[in-house]
Amino acid sequence: MNNLLEAALQYRSMGLSVIPLSPKSKIPPKGFSPIPYRARIATEDEIRQWWKDEPNYNVGIVTGKLSGVFVIDLDKYADDYSEESAQNIIGDSIVCPTVETPRKGQHLYYSYPENFNPTIGSRIAPGIDYRGEGGYILAPPSVNEKNIPYKWVITFDRPILPALSASFLKEASNRLNESTLYKGMTTSNSSCRQVSSLSSNVFSVGRRDNDLFHLANCLIKGGCEIEFSSEVLKRIIVSWGEKPDEKWIDTKINSALQRAERKERNLTAEISEWVMSSSGVFLSSECRQCLHLSSREEQKHLSTVLRRLCAEGVIKKHGNKNGCFEVIETLEENIIDLTTADNTCLAIKYPLGVHELVKTMPKNIVIVAGESNAGKTALLLNIAAKNMLDHEV
Questions:
Q1: CA count, 13 A, side-chain hemisphere, 150
Q2: 3-class secondary structure, 327
């Protein structure tokens, strides 16, 4: 059986809501909405049909009340990620089902908290996000775009998942409260000027489609989850007195996701290519200037790629200066001194007196070529016969 389908059916048997995700990706297939599967678990027939349609679908697990799971996502390549900070917030003494991501991050599985209603994606600290109600998480044996799999480090085989630590719940509550306060704050004069300077034609008839797609791109690029972005688009459409078309909205969200994914993948390739074309010592600022990486997100992505290349042994930090790296040479130079090279020819005899016309040096490779029945075998047997008394043949 397909190992992805087998895993999906096994997760379903454990009471988890399973959804398909595009091959080697984190996004749902085109035209598929994960929203219905927050209210009900897919049937076995539905799951089998999904993987029959596309055997390489990745496996997603819907988090929240229905599945009864809450997942903490540790991105250890994020800027200022601190293991100590993570342990202080999460608690380092709790053993829970754990997945290792292709980037050596971790997904930590806990039971969904009853007295707290966390949603999705809120950043608790640098490199620490979570998935609760309204979210989903990529599950093993799914793979990323480089075909590197997600894998269980501590398997999901317990009937009861561990509860979240009090320190995590407190930190999450504080973050939610801060978010609520921020939403209620009055805008500064500069913010007011920015809002008032927006074109009055935004979302006007004739440009709504483009404006909604632009908004979807901004939301996805800003790190918003699919469900949150979808809800924002719906509320805007409702404000026009129209009924939202969920299929149309899903298309816009998926297009934005694919665009963001392509942009990130292309930028990674450009940075890696620039580094590989460098030799010796280089500065990250040189790469930034050469590739015109001006936005904060692009510069953050540069730092992530450079850390990844360090972990893969392609480059290493040079000296004590920040942002200074050195390309690791994988091959040692073999300097040949022609003045001391041995130019003694090998005493090899060839038929037809060829050895009087050419010299055979040590480590030379002699190629005998010709069409069928041209006499190649006869020539080689003659070479063996002429040299058998002087050499080991």
A1: 26
A2: strand
**What tokens were used for 171?**
């930190």
pLDDT of the chain, 393 residues: tens digit per residue: 689 999 999 999 999 999 999 998 888 888 888 888 989 999 999 999 999 999 999 999 999 889 999 998 888 776 667 777 777 788 755 678 899 998 888 999 998 887 666 565 556 777 888 888 888 899 999 999 889 999 998 887 756 788 888 878 877 776 655 544 444 443 334 333 343 334 446 666 666 677 777 787 777 766 677 778 888 888 888 877 778 888 878 877 877 777 666 565 577 878 888 887 777 788 888 888 777 676 677 778 888 889 888 888 888 888 887 888 888 876 566 777 888 877 888 999 999 989 899 989 888 999 999 988 899 999 999 999 999 998 888
pTM score, two decimals? 0.48
Burial 21-55 (b: 16+ CB within 10 A, else e): bbeebbbbbeebbbbebbeebbeeeebbebbeeee
Q: Which residue in this structure is represented by tokens 């600290």?
A: 125
Closest by Cα among 298, 297, 316 to 307 = 316
Cα 25 from Cα 102, distance rounded (Å): 12
Judge contact between 89 and 169, C-beta under 8 A.
no
Query: Per the structure block, which two tokens stand in for 234?
Result: 């719906």
Give the C-alpha separation, 138 to 60, whole Å: 5
Closest to 154 measured CA to CA, from 207, 112, 100, 193: 100
